[in-house]
Amino acid sequence: MFEPIRKFARALRAPTAQEREMAYLNGSHDRIDLEYRQRQVDRGIFRNR
Fold first, then answer.
1. Which 3 state secondary structure label does DSSP give 24?
2. What's a Pfam family this protein contains (predicted)?
3. How many domains does the chain have?
């Protein structure tokens, strides 16, 4: 009964910081780009201060 409502609510929620970080890292093109992106994530570009 509530499953369609749950699916709708899940579709509207904003991605978490961890999900945004993973999407950013998965978008890397090569190893050098991945290492650069990992440093950016370690510096906290997706975290609220």
1. helix
2. DUF3563
3. 1
Are the CB atoms for 24 and 46 separated by under 8 Å? yes
| 19 found inside a domain | yes
- Cα gap 15→13, rounded to integer Å: 7
Which residues span the domain enclosing 38?
14-49
Question: What digits encode the pLDDT tens for the residues 14-45?
Answer: 888 889 999 999 999 999 999 999 999 999 88
Would 1 be classed as within a structural domain?
A: no
- What is the pLDDT at residue 47? 76
> With b meaning 16 or more CB within 10 Å and e meaning fewer, what string describes 23-36?
eeeeeeeeeeeeee
